[in-house]
Amino acid sequence: MRFRSSEGLTIAAAFAVVAAVLPFLDVADWRTLAAFSILVAASELFEVTLPNDVRYSLGLAPALGLALLGSIKPEVTNPPLASVMLAFAAGMLLATLVRALRGRPLVIAESAAHVLALAAGAAAYNTLKSVEDMPLFDIEKTAGATDISIIGFTAMFITVLGIETLLTSLRRVERERVPFVPVFRGVLAATFALHLSVLSVGALLAVAYPALDYWAFPLYLAPLAMTQYAFKQFASIRKTYLQTIRALSKVPEMAGYTAPGHSTRVAQLSVAIARELGVPEQELNEIEYAALLHDIGRVSIPEPTEATEASSKMQLATVGAAIIRETGHFPKVAEMIEKQHHPYRKRGEGSNAELPPGAKIIKVASSFDDHTRPGGIGLSPHDVLDRLSLGMAFDYDPEVVQALRRVLEKQGSL
Amino acid sequence: MSFVVTIAAIVAAGPSEALVATTIGTINFRQSLRPLYRHTFNAAQLAITAGLGGVAYLAVGGPVGDLQGLFPAVLAPLLVATAVNFLVNTLLVSTAFGLRDGKQALRIWTSHYAGLGGSYLAFALVGLLLGALYLEIGEASVIFLLIPLLVARHAFNATVTMQGIYDDTLRALMQAIETKDPYTRGHAERVSRLAEMTARTYGLREDQCRLIRYAALMHDVGKLGVLSTILQKPGKLTPDEYDHMKLHPARGVEIVGGIDLLDEAIVGVRHHHERMDGMGYPDGLKGEQIPLLARLITVADAFDSMTSTRTYRVAKTIEEAFAELRRCAGTQFDPRCLEALERAIARNGWEPFPEIEQHDDEGHEHAVSL
Fold it and tell me: Are B250 and B327 spatial neighbours (Cβ–Cβ below 8 Å)?
């Protein structure tokens, strides 16, 4: 098992934190701790996969709930941070064991990240929970409300969200060698709601446990299960959509209208270039769809011929765009397909600001594949880059070509 | 979602309060007030449901408003209340739809609602949690529970939206792909609708009907690999040409094989040219060996073929088509699937593909008329 440096650091940090708090351990109430440990392990079984393969599991919820318990009903149980950490760590170990037995990925680095997030979140809550008692803040508590400090809760949320997002983004940046900021924003957007849910459910548990004792455990799993189910459904339909587009993008190939694998390669390259240019995560999907279907217009030609004339190329692009518009959705995808042959700049004018970046990217990527694919013109990547550079006056956007160069370097093709 | 409130109210306060809470909860200011009968029906059926559920709960001794004695006394009554609630609610709705659309209520129930029992149980547990929390800390309990529920609902809505987008995209792409041959334009869409109609009449579950809708939509996608000269040849095909044609189901599977959702439906694509007597292609499967999805698509495909004009022959009327199909029942077609198709068309009606006028086909079709 090998770890990348960011993962290794995370795991080391997690161990360090646990070791640091160990002297403050208090297991007088070991029954509660053990029960919560098991609950953590059980919650970890609820795995959610978000868009862009961000994996998430819900074991943080009971741990955060345990951290809040001391605040709500200290007479029931008031575990110090060390005990909460231990309970969580024990639960995570158990979950890892179960994963190993089931042959599922062990996600050790992710688990370590959770440990750190928990530590920071609980610390944030403890630090700020008494803020409300300061004369400066005078927040009215509603009748019958619990003693969960709102400021503390918010601080906990921000801390957990921040650390989780940061560590997840670092992992991805290291694994896929893509720029940090767009990935960070993408992960933030994708996990915001989920973290909010987890925290709420944790707070729910913290409130329910003093009232319902161990009966709270199976009950609390219900909203958790619902959240996971809803996200799973969404992830599933998105996956199906992408698979279907991929499948249908092979149709022009099968009919002999385009070279085998062309659409797939152009799509992969386009997404890589787009990432390199810092395109936000949410737009990457549309670029992928547009790239996969950029030649779909060709199915309207009666017989397969290489459409090489500029005017017929433009016409086919327009046809392709019309097909996409017929779906009633994805106007941006249609626009990218329509303008894939447009020059980025006309003589005597500046760069065309209305040309979607996706269109420029697909133009470059498609040209690259046409020149390098086996059975095609058969140039080396170096030579193609030179050729594209020659066309940078009007046809190919220099920024896109530079991004392509960086992508090829990272891939080791140059 | 109102079910959560119902259960919470029953546990915390009792059946009459539950009834009131649920009914008030049906008021939705964002929806327009037309048609009024829909809102009245909704409020009424939810009120009946909540009331009956509450009554059942009390009848088996469920604790009300009592936090200390809640567990484990609440479990069995909760189960009973959930079951009653589920059955009354879904049966009432099924009956309403049945009356409105002229279908059998029980059939609607089986295909649409029977599988929802599990989710009702999950909602019941959430409702129990809400009720218990309400007894413990009052109104603030709602806030904590609201967030995960709202998040879940948001994700669920996004899923439904995506589902619609999927359908639209698939249909548009398939339509575009078909335009190579004007005579088959719309064929995929029609076979898809026919097959889904037939599947429903046959009694398949809702999710199976959805699978067949997609599989039937893409059943001929493999034909893109077949030369136009063969596809549109007026006369009979030579053995070589026929062999070339016979590859299209397998090629179709190659194209759509990567879609996990359709794993079960792929067989519909691969085997839609099999025959009951085993003389079909590509695998020569016989009778029950042919997957049901494929058998359904086969009759839908044949029916639409016969009732459309092709380059090599004129369209038949619906009656003529059925006569022809019946002649081949047992040998080529599954009689039960055929019968389901006939009943589906009898019930829903069917507009065959309109006659196209002959126009010069000199390849001026490059602009897709959409």
Answer: no
Percent of chain A with pLDDT over 70: 93
Look at residue B32 in the predicted model and tell me its pLDDT. Answer: 65
CB atoms within 10 A of CB B20: 15
Tell me, yes or no, if B63 comes closer than 8 A to chain A by beta carbon.
Answer: no
**CA A65, chain centre distance (Å):** 25
- Put simply, whether B221 touches A (Cβ < 8 Å) is yes
pLDDT per position as a tens digit, A297-329: 887 776 666 556 667 888 889 989 998 998 888
- Report the 3 state secondary structure along A358-379: HHHHHHHHHHHHHHHCCCCCCC
Of A304-318, B232-246, B321-335, the poorest mean pLDDT is in A304-318
User: What is the value of pTM for the model shown?
Assistant: 0.80
Catalytic residue among B223, B233, B246, B316: B223
C-alpha neighbours within 13 Å on the C-beta side of residue A142: 11
ipTM of the complex: 0.80
Contact A293/A338 with Cβ under 8 angstroms? no
Q: Which one-letter DSSP state was computed for residue A258? A: S
Report the SS3 class of residue A182: helix
**N-terminal to C-terminal alpha carbon distance within chain B:** 41
| B180 near A CB under 8 A | yes
| pLDDT mean over B234-252 | 83
**Cα–Cα dist B5/B129, whole Å:** 11
DSSP per residue over A315-357, as a string?
Answer: HHHHHHHHHHHHTT--HHHHHHHHTTT--SB-TTS-B-TTS-H
Contact B138/A231, CB-based, under 8 Å? no
Give the closest-approach CA distance of B38 to chain A in angstroms: 27
| Whether A223 and B140 lie within 8 Å, measured CB to CB | no
Residue B252: pLDDT band with limits 50, 70, 90: confident
Considering only residues A94 and B69, tell me which one the structure prediction assigns the higher pLDDT. A94
Neighbouring CB atoms inside 10 A of B68's CB total 8
CA angle A183, A188, A191 (to 5 degrees): 120
SS3 content of chain A, % helix, strand, coil (to 5): 70, 0, 25
| B316 among known catalytic residues | no
Query: Do the Cβ atoms of B141 and A207 come within 8 Å?
Result: yes
A33 interfacial to chain B (CB closer than 8 Å): no
Q: Model confidence over B62-72: pLDDT tens digits?
A: 888 777 777 77
Enumerate the H helices of B227-310 as residue ranges: 228-231, 239-245, 248-256, 266-270, 292-306
Report the residue from B132, B152, B254 with minimal CB separation from A230: B152
Contact A230 B259 (CB under 8 A): no
pLDDT band at residue A402 under the 50/70/90 scheme: very high
Interface mutation target, options A327, A329, A333, A337, chain B, most CBs of B under 10 Å? A327
* Cβ-defined contact of A208 to B72 (cutoff 8 Å): no
